[in-house]
Fold this sequence. Notes:
Helix 2 runs parallel beside helix 4 (76-95) and helix 2 (26-46) packs across helix 7. By secondary structure, this protein is mostly helical. The longest helix has 21 residues, at 26-46. Mean pLDDT is 75; it is low at 100-120 and 193-230. The chain contains eleven helices and no strands.
Amino acid sequence: MAEGAGYDGVSDQELLARHVRGEPGAFGEIVRRHRDRLWAVALRTLGDREEAADAVQDALVSAYRAAGSFRGQSAVTTWLHRITVNACLDRARKAASRKTAPVNDTERLEQLLEPHESASAPTERKDLHRQLIEAMGTLAPEQRAALVLVDMQGYPVAEAARILDVPTGTVKSRCARGRARLLPLLAHLRPDRNRVQGTSVPSATGACEASLPETGTTDSAVAKGGGGRA
């Protein structure tokens, strides 16, 4: 039997309810369904595999323990993402004073930005990724989290706002400020386009989109609620 086949057709919310009632395996199925996207968000927000792994572990432990407080006011995936982003922001704030070096190991870099890309990625692409991560490291954690969700993971602004538990205007503001700071650092990555158009350099999100495929999708309709505040 394929992994998780016994839970085919069972919603995330029902799985969480079964976990609260003590059913073995229910929470593990939730983790199986969402771990890749949580991992990608953590990696791109923190820029360090060990820190990201610890943040995801912290988040899942918190979710496991707090499942009984979930009231269904949001999708389970939104609730999980909110807890994960909060765990990442906590770690990012604690690490801000020690300013760890950006990722420079090839394997770690590929895991960070392209978890499923082969090791034969062009040297130019790896260099592009390295420059992007170095630039992202200059942003405030809250701006970085917003850009990761919207520009890298492809979440709509409204969904990112629910995950971060802030107004949509705040997400737009954080993204705009983050892009403005990234612009002078990343504008050189697309010089051909600038020469052809003869206009100003493209937005930083354009540079992000050029190097990062949209790896995340989101539930179509969720309401605000659940989880902590980012």
